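Morning, I've got a small favour to ask if you have a moment. I've dropped the whole record in just underneath, so have a look.
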Amino acid sequence: MPIARLAVKRGSDLAVSLVSLAFLATPFLIVALAVKLDSKGPIFFRQERVGKGGEPFRIWKFRTMVEGADRQGPAYDVVARRDSRVTRVGRFLRNSGIDELPQLLNVFWGTMSLVGPRPTIAYEVAHYDRIQRRKLLMKPGLTSLAIVSGRNALPLHERIRLDVLYVNHWSLWLDLKILLKTLWVVLVTRKGVYEDEDVRSFFEEPPVDTQDDGRS
């Protein structure tokens, strides 16, 4: 991939994440307090994901589910519309997309980008074929082509196909279009916030010990 364009992409990630984190500092404190008062458990949810080149990293989100949610139902990344594990504050955070904003820290640190394929869980990567593994050629994104195309309303194999499509046709102009469309999807249509029945995937469920409940 062109080094110059990648440098511009990284520079944009640094600038936008730094300004955004400074602007969101006070709102983050308010959200953190609300999460802590609403239910028992840590403020942030952290989980190991697979990034560019297959390198593992920890993703940051505001916690939206009860402590020990993985022992009360499916994996953390499988959340139904009426999932009882989602807290009151967590439902608002998910519906508004605010729960994802701590990933700006990942963008600032360089483990993620503003736009890219969505971060992947290791047990899913283990099932990827040669073409699907192409999504690992770029840093994971805070938003993605899959998110603006339907996100959780799409079957997992379709989300992966869109991630690969993004990698194959990436450009700075495509990033800008996805960022602008993300505002519409997250703030207006809110399509695909939760998993629809029978759209998930052809992948098996992960073993319990691959989960991270955010306490470490």
